[in-house]
Design goal:
five-stranded mixed sheet; 9 strands; alpha+beta; two-stranded antiparallel ribbon; about 130 residues
Length: about 130
């Protein structure tokens, strides 16, 4: 559905709040709505968190993988509301490159008020470099 960035990660890893966190938010495509704000699977959304750091990253990347990250950030444009916009190919390249097999999964809430609950979180454990 959308992605957004938080300057200062909202999740900490080993007690460290890193420089940047990107959240990709997904809503159920078609699911029976039960009238309570939830869908039949008990989740209102799922979210993927990618954490970035200038100097405390853990990713061991090839030059080509670093280029994927750099191209993603260099291609960001901002709409009239201040939300980031990026070409789908650049976004897709980033999401295909990251290690989604190593992550924390939990049932939580969105991170901004009113902090609606029932979000299925996937926070990737690899910390990626950003300059």
């Amino acid at each position: 559905m959308q992605f957004h960035l938080h300057a200062g990660s909202e999740h900490t890893i080993d007690g460290v709040r890193h420089d940047l966190e990107m959240h990709t938010v997904h809503y159920p495509d078609i699911a029976p709505y039960d009238g309570t704000g939830l869908f039949a699977n008990d989740f209102m959304a799922s979210a993927v968190g990618l954490v970035f750091s200038v100097d405390k990253y853990t990713a061991d990347l090839t030059f080509a993988e670093q280029e994927v990250i750099d191209n993603f950030f260099n291609s960001l444009k901002w709409d009239d509301t201040g939300s980031p916009v990026v070409d789908m190919v650049t976004y897709g390249s980033l999401m295909e490159m990251v290690d989604s097999n190593n992550r924390w999964i939990y049932k939580g809430s969105v991170t901004t008020p009113p902090c609606a609950t029932f979000v299925y979180w996937n926070v990737l454990s690899t910390i990626y470099p950003v300059s």
